[in-house]
Design a protein that fits this description.
Blueprint (H helix, E strand, L loop, with lengths): L6 H14 L1 E4 L7 E4 L1 H5 L1 H12 L7 E5 L2 H13 L2 E7 L6 E9 L2 E8 L8 E9 L3 H12 L3 E10 L14 E6 L1
Parallel strand pairs: 3-4, 3-7, 7-8, 8-9
Antiparallel strand pairs: 1-2, 4-6, 5-6
Helix pairs in contact: 1-3, 3-4
């Protein structure tokens, strides 16, 4: 499936991807409806569709940054299709050498993300990829972390956006793309 196929074909493929996303009620807690993308990742055609559609948005970026953990999987596939490298944005304590770290608030506490040393050069153009855009805290922290090392964030892409949670607004001027919105 080459990048840039017609819109009708892409819409049909994305509908097939959407059909694979499972709803898991009351996970990780009561009242939460979890959108499980594991079946999408396990289906070669669906993963190819996701990678192809997001790769079409990478543009002139030098790198794709995949956010821990499912963002690593999707981001790597996107980078391969786009013909660029990939860099992981990790949770604290997972990297042997750290270029920068950024702490941020979550609805249930605080988290820290880290960027590996000697991978993202100042001025590098980076397209950020994650599986889900929810409240936007992790996405905003990732974009800020990349800016901390002098990178230019060219956009943010996600497989799923939980629109009612307003995460898109937390990304300011960063162009946001989601393949499907719930």
């Amino acid at each position: 499936m080459p990048v840039g196929t017609d819109d009708e074909e892409a819409a049909e493929r994305l509908a097939q991807v959407r059909a694979l996303v499972r709803d898991v009620p009351d996970f990780p807690g009561p009242g939460v409806l979890f959108r499980d993308i594991t079946p999408v990742l396990a289906d070669g055609q669906a993963l190819t569709t996701v990678a192809t559609e997001l790769a079409a948005l990478v543009g002139e970026a030098d790198l794709v940054a995949g956010v821990e953990a499912r963002g690593f999987l999707i981001g790597s596939a996107v980078a391969v299709v786009a013909g660029v490298g990939v860099v992981p944005v990790r949770k604290a304590g997972k990297l042997p050498r750290v270029a920068a770290s950024r702490s941020y608030s979550l609805e249930y506490g605080e988290a820290t993300l880290e960027l590996p040393a000697d991978v993202v050069e100042a001025g590098a153009r980076v397209f950020v990829v994650d599986d889900v855009l929810a409240t936007g805290g992790t996405a905003a922290a990732t974009c800020a972390l990349l800016a901390d090392v002098g990178a230019v964030v060219t956009g943010f892409g996600a497989l799923v956006e939980l629109g009612a949670l307003g995460g898109r607004a937390r990304l300011g001027d960063v162009e946001v793309h989601a393949l499907m919105t719930y």
